[in-house]
Design brief:
about 170 residues; 4-stranded antiparallel beta sheet; two-stranded antiparallel ribbon; 5 helices; about 50% helix; elongated
Amino acid sequence: MRGDLRIASARAPYRRAGLAWATREPLSLYIRDLDGPRLLVLVQDPVLSVSLEAADGKVTQLRYEAGETAGVYADLIGSFPELPVESVAAEPDLVADALHEVASKLSLAGFASIDDLIQAHAERRDQAELHERKITVLTETLAKRDAEIARQKVAAAKAPKTPKGPAAPDSPST
């Protein structure tokens, strides 16, 4: 489709301007899905490579030029037509296939629904936060213990030493 952006990231995972790359695979989206400021941020980012398929089918690498503003990119976005809602509705098989693929991947991962996936993610996040808190408390406790041991060693080193003399006559010798 004309007006498609392909945005590749040299790093993964990576987030910028509300988009996320879990892998280094490029994201594809229609240029009108963005606004001028977001597109400017993406084009300025040296980690990202942004290319645009123009109306004539020519693919162009978008590069930031000094002094360009979000308005320049807003004008570029405005030069492409909005997608009619019917374009998605006109291809129900593609939508159905995509939904079936998502459902299959969820099932293979052991989830009955997207809600189950979200719940599992929330539980894992909560467990990770609890684990982090435990590590923090343990680290603080060990630091206090180490400080107390060091304090005791310093105090023992400063304490006067009592010399050992000859054993008293009424005490058994060893």
